[in-house]
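For this section, I looked closely at a protein sequence along with its fold in token form, which I now present.
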Amino acid sequence: MMRVLILLTTLTAAGIANAADIEAGRERSAACQSCHGPEGISLGAAWPNLAGQKAGYLEAQLKAFRAGKRKNPFMNAMTSGLSDAEIGNLAAFFASLPAGGSGAEPGVPAHVAGGRIAFPAGYADAFLAYGKFNRENGKQLMAVFANQAAVDGMRAGGKPADGAVVVAEIYKIKRDAGGAPITGADGLFEQGPLAAYAVMEKGAGWGDDTPADLRNGDWHYAIFTPDKKLKPGLNQAPCLACHKPLADEDFMFTHARLAAAAQ
């Protein structure tokens, strides 16, 4: 009896695998490739390799992310719109890839690589400074600035126009002897050294080559080091996925702040 059950289970699993469409999974994987690579070989230490993983395992993990049983804001957002069939196809595709890849150095796909955005020199004097606030991660302080195209667009239609540029200065914060953030009378963390610049810019048609699962209208993102150099090997995918749920706010976490300041 036990052998019969094992055989039935094996046949059922094989039937599920056979029912999946690997080519459909390959097409659907464009957004996944932004972090996990076109061959399922990760583009960074923060993301696991998917190539050669068992299809059943991948399917279970994707469904857990979709249901919120596994917590990861990036993956929760990425899987929220996937159907069971799409998850099955993705799992089958990545399972079909050789675990070691081709041996070629994985590169960031063109649709999420940095490069369109140049550092906006002189922004501190020319842009509207519209707020300073504690980041939600509770570890940093941020000051934000918007150019005239962003301000004019907010005044005219409630969202920044093409050519809009928003700059965020991201600072480390001061901590007490126990490691807790030091907060001033205004409720803001006490500012430490500059950690990075985050820049978002909107250009006509800039989103056309971005997978639908990641597209933020025509916004692109870039991270610059404190010496104003583009972060090496920039991958926009985490930024795009993080901002993706904010379509009603034109993909801006600071939309309401800018709207108020633009009046």
In short: The domain at 123-262 is CATH 3.50.70.20 (Chalcone isomerase).
